[in-house]
Amino acid sequence: MLDTAPLQSRLLDHADYYARWSGLAIGIVAAQQLVTVESGDITMPLVVAITAFGLCAVGGVLLGDALTLRPQEAVRTASVAPRLVRDQVPPRMAPLLLLQAASLVTLLVIGAVTASSDPARTVGAGHVLTVTCEGIPTSLGPWPGLYYSGPMFAALAIGTPVCLWALRRIAHGPGSDQQRRDRAWAITGAWGLLVSSQLLLVVLMIVIALTEQGCAGRLGAATIVVVCPLGLLSLFTFGWSLVTVMAPRAVEDQAADDTPFDDE
User: Which UniProt keywords apply (predicted)?
Assistant: First the structure.
């Protein structure tokens, strides 16, 4: 039988996957270039690199979703029940990612409030934590103050509304339930990469700063105990998000296999 599929369908059949993978590849290359930029502060290039990687991942997934072919059906039926965004996103991972995002914003706000300027530097205000160690003021860093959290806040302010808009467009747009879930899972995974990578970096900054000279005291030790589980959680969600961006259907199919079938 001759292949009668339209040329556009053949060309764009896997364009969404290519766009997602290209976004990840561009993000990795950009991060490698940014992290090697010569700077007096080795932390800022890392912050910019992680932020650029997350934004590239989000951009690749959004481009792939825009290139996804819409179904062309002769007859369309409307469902009485309204489609909700929460019905399209991963039921277990979406709340976990929201918790991580809230934790990230909380840590960045606390870091901005408690940060101070390094007396040894004339630029980069708000990137160290000043404590009293044996009666001597001591600067601990790198600390996630405004100097470092600025790019992170900007990335969240850009990526979060765009991903939310895309999820709403998918929920109310055409396509089968499977297609909408695949697309929504991919966008959720991209946003998860943005959030989890930044949270992991913030946790590492806090742990390094508080253990640098052993001057953090009991409050610092308690802070480490609180943030370390967040770091482990961000590692897990980063891996899940990466797999989901690369192959959302594979993740969805695995979840579907765990669901028992209902007898009709």
Answer: Membrane, Transmembrane, Transmembrane helix
Q: Is 194 or 139 the better-scoring residue by pLDDT?
A: 194
In a domain, 65, yes or no: no
User: Under 8 Å CB-to-CB from 57, ≥6 apart: which residues?
Assistant: 23, 24, 27, 190, 193, 194, 245
State how many domains the chain has.
1
Q: pLDDT tens for residues 23-48? A: 999 999 999 999 888 777 788 899 99
Tokens 């990526």 belong to residue: 159
Is residue 264, in this structure, part of any structural domain at all?
A: no
Q: Would you give the DSSP letter of residue 70?
A: P
**How far is residue 241's CA from residue 229's CA, in Å, rounded to a whole number?**
18
Domain interval for residue 189: 87-257
pLDDT 10s digits, 163-188: 999 898 888 877 677 888 888 899 99
On average, the pLDDT of the chain sits at: 80
- C-alpha to C-alpha distance for 249 and 20, rounded to whole angstroms: 13
Residue pair 64/19 in contact by the 8 Å Cβ criterion: yes
Closest alpha carbon to 177 in 254, 71, 94:
71
DSSP letter for 42, please: S
pLDDT band at 85 (very low <50, low <70, confident <90, very high): confident
DSSP reduced 3-state for 90: coil
Token look-up 């209902």 returns 262
What was the pLDDT predicted at 229?
Answer: 93
Residue 20 lies in a domain: no
Q: What share of the chain is helix, strand, coil (3-state, %, to 5)?
A: 65, 5, 30
First vs last C-alpha separation in the chain: 36
